[in-house]
Amino acid sequence: MSDRLPAPSSPRRSSWTAVFAWAMYDWANSAYSTLLITVVLHYVQEIVLPDRRGPAAFAWGIGSAMFAAALLSPLVGAAADANRSKRRWLAVTALGGSAAALGMAAAPPDQPWLVLAAFVAMGLCFELSLVPYNGFLPEITTEATINRVSAFGFALGYLGGAIPLALIWLIVDRGRGAFGLSEAGVDRLGILLLGAWWGAFSLPALWVLRDRQPPPDRRATWTQTWRTAAGQVGRTLVHVRQFPQLMLFLVGFLFYNDGIQTVITQSNTLASKELQFSIHELFALVLAIQLVALPGSLLVGWLSDRVGQKPVLLGCLAVWVALPLTALVVHNKTTFWVLGLALALVLGGTQSVGRAIMGVLTPRRREAEFFGFFNVSGKAASVLGVVQFGAVMMATGNARWAAVSLLVFFLIGGALVWRVDLTEGRRQADP
After folding, report:
1. Quick one: what percent of the chain has pLDDT higher than 90?
2. Percent of the chain beyond pLDDT 70?
3. Does residue 96 register a pLDDT over 90?
């Protein structure tokens, strides 16, 4: 049987308020995604620790945040389900991340441990906020609209990430002299903008979104909640086995997402070290990728409605397989630009359709629990791609061969996704 969805139906008019408010959180947190690999990277590596410790601190900071998020995401998801508190958790993590960014901007650059502590806290809050945020998706959509809503969130996020990036780029490129800011001052201004943008544009989601399920008759204490949540994590490992198609997809996602995350985190290092991209050129490249990824996300959502989620995801993964192979022939900035824009077309779409498939396969009333598991599966494995990339580069001294080595993640992930039966998975999720 085909995994093509039923013909889309229009959601009730009142639901568009919740959809737009939900998508605005993608707009809000995308400032972190774009400014992390430009402004924050430059600040840590060139200002705070301007020696060989800088790249290591940046990598280990991200790794520490993701490792902590991998441990805590299932607990946050289970606790959010237990107390019907997704909105509360979204508020704590979104506003906490915003505050951490503001603290990083305020910390003196000659206090590296203070800067790095705020940096790790910011990354941890970003990762944890995705658990309740993704958990809201099945509650504000139907099976007929989930593809478009998921794609809309990613598309709005790419625009929301592009605007603050463009503002800081203009200051760096043209306005530094006019504002009288030093290089460190420009970076700190960019991090300040990151925190303010993230916090301010999180407010629509926090104002509008509500847990659809009624709260428990008696709210558990914090100790009881975390004890229950910890036990729920163990049960989740058992529960997920009751949904074989969901489990198969999760393992496939684990592999292909590891490849995607490694490409995202390593591409700017490759550009700057191998092809000598300047900070201005990196701004331009990341901004272009953001703008191309926006229509790419919408296109993938449109195709998913008409062709089916699984064929579209496999098509996106085919592009990801091709991209590492082409890394062997990248010898100039123009070619790298072409590859970057090709990646942008499927970047948001791959993540969007994967999130939509997860929503379809997730059993009802346990969204936060299973999306927490979805979140942790990607984070727990994401270190593998980085380790492999670094090991191959150390062995060969060639970043291109390191990129080609990532093929294994996309091939294994694609093979597992190929085996997923969405029709059976939907039946298992809602028998």
Report:
1. 23
2. 81
3. yes
Number of domains, the chain = 1
Quote the CA–CA distance of 27 and 390 in Å, as a whole number: 32
Helices (H) and strands (E) in the chain, counts: 17, 0
| 221 within some domain | no
Cα–Cα distance measured from residue 187 to residue 49, given in angstroms and rounded to the nearest whole number: 14
Residue 132 corresponds to which tokens in the numbers above?
A: 């309740």
Q: Provide the CATH number for the domain around residue 122.
A: 1.20.1250.20
Concatenating the DSSP letter of every residue in 124-193 gives HHHHHHHHHHHHHHHHH--TTTHHHHHHHHHHHHHHHHHHHHHHHHHIIIIIHHHHT--HHHHHHHHHHH
Confidence of residue 378 (pLDDT cuts 50, 70, 90): low
| Higher per-residue pLDDT: 315 or 9 | 315
Closest CA to 134 of 427, 416, 411, 352: 352
Measuring CA to CA, how many Å separate 87 from each of 11, 81, 206, 407? 22, 11, 6, 38
Q: What mean pLDDT is predicted for residues 221-240?
A: 70
Cβ proximity of 321 and 411 under 8 Å: yes
The answer to the question of residue 217 being in a domain is no
User: Over the range 370-390, which residues count as b (16 or more CB within 10 Å of their CB) and which as e?
Assistant: bbbbbbbbbbbbbbbbbebbe
Q: Please check whether residue 248 is in contact with residue 419, taking contact to mean a CB–CB distance below 8 angstroms.
A: yes
> Does residue 268 belong to any structural domain of this protein?
yes
Task: Give 246-291 pLDDT, tens digit per residue.
Answer: 888 888 988 898 888 878 776 776 676 667 777 778 888 888 887 7
Q: Write down the pTM of the prediction.
A: 0.74
Report yes or no: 156 and 23 within 8 Å, Cβ to Cβ.
yes
Find the domain containing 376 and state its range. Answer: 15-211+228-429
Residues in the chain: 431
Say if residues 28 and 160 touch (Cβ distance below 8 Å). yes
In a domain, 8, yes or no: no
**Four-residue CA torsion sign, 182, 187, 193, 195:** negative
